[in-house]
Amino acid sequence: MLAKDIKPGVIVVNNGAPHLIESLSVQSPSARGGATLYKFRARNLVTKQKADITLKGTEGLDDADFEKRAVSLMYADTEVAHLLDGENYQQYELALADAADDLLYVTDGLEGMFALIYNGECVGIQLPTTVELTITECDPGVKGNSATGRTKPAKMETGLQVNVPEYLKQGEKIKIDTRTGEFLSRA
């Protein structure tokens, strides 16, 4: 796969290990004959370490022999999250240490969540880009302050802390970006 075809969310092989591309920046040449550089921020799916990869436009990386399976969260105990494949009802286990941040966005019946399977083992989960969560705790808004861009901290049903606009109240559903953890809009 050529560097120009690699997008965020794609899984490639770098140094013999599967890497999930998280972000991309393109640096155009400043002189004639200069090559366009593609800079990728990737996460090694086995060791969970971040890696920076820089390629010229004519260079490329191999696709990882990877499988994405649509799953749902069955339950999480103190050490492991248990996931269920919706098609063949196979169960996968993922260490909580590897998925603790991602599980703050997961609710019952979440659509669009995928298990990343490498060599028959679940090495991570991929979340949808936005999720809807309900505010369970937040300070009350002050009447008349809704015109300003001020925010307040709010706790979601999963325990996630998000800064939301002052006009939102407890019990409202909101959309959150899973890549940045930021408030997007009311649901």
Automatic annotation (TrEMBL):
Residues annotated as domain Elongation factor P C-terminal: 131-186
Translation elongation factor P/YeiP central domain: residues covered: 68-123
GO molecular function: translation elongation factor activity
Xref: Pfam families: EFP, EFP_N, Elong-fact-P_C
PANTHER family in UniProt: ELONGATION FACTOR P, TRANSLATION ELONGATION FACTOR KOW-LIKE DOMAIN-CONTAINING PROTEIN
UniProt xrefs under InterPro entries: Elong-fact-P_C (IPR015365), NA-bd_OB-fold (IPR012340), Rib_uL2_dom2 (IPR014722), Transl_elong_fac_P/YeiP (IPR020599), Transl_elong_KOW-like (IPR013185), Transl_elong_P/YeiP_cen (IPR001059), Transl_elong_P/YeiP_CS (IPR013852), Translation_prot_SH3-like_sf (IPR008991)
Family: Belongs to the elongation factor P family.
A single Gene Ontology CC term: cytosol
GO biological process, one term: peptide biosynthetic process
SMART domains, A to Z: EFP, Elong-fact-P_C
Gene name of the record: yeiP
Protein name, per record: Elongation factor P-like protein
Keywords of this entry: Elongation factor, Protein biosynthesis
